[in-house]
Amino acid sequence: MQSWRSEIDREVDEEIRFHIDPATMTAAVREELARIDPTQAPFDVMTMMDRRAFTTWPQRALGSSFAAFGLIAFVLALCGVYGVIAYSVVRQTREIGVRIALGARPTDVLRRVVGRALKMAGIGALIGLAAAVLFARALEGILYGVSINNPTPYASVVGLIIAAAALASFLPARRAASVDPTEALRAD
After folding, report:
1. What is the value of pTM for the model shown?
2. Domain residue ranges in the chain
């Protein structure tokens, strides 16, 4: 115990370092500070991790809010892509039936429907990428670790959007590929 007491004498105004869990030493630090100067009451004694968590909670709350809103927007976009592609397939059932009757393979129909969804998602991702670059300058000062020069977040989000669009369009595309041409031509 004597080794850390000498550190307290040298660094009493700044900080105290331990090689063990500092939270267990709070009571001992208070007693030693009271022994050194009984007129000074130690207040606000906390570990550096607790102090960092206390001082950065607004930024963490803002970051968590952005992440939650981003997740909600992603789910809504996924539902929107699915709905638009499913509606498009229903509207084009007759055309798809004619294509299959004329010899189009189901993989061609599948590729066409998924390709259309990927084209829409690509255009949306480019627009979103341009907006993200514009807004990143404002977020750089608010959020820790946000840099407009780091291409990894941009590339990962664009990749995620493209993959989500492919996934959301796969079910309607599979349904379109399995259209029976005679039923499609009869339906009106």
Report:
1. 0.60
2. 2-53, 57-186
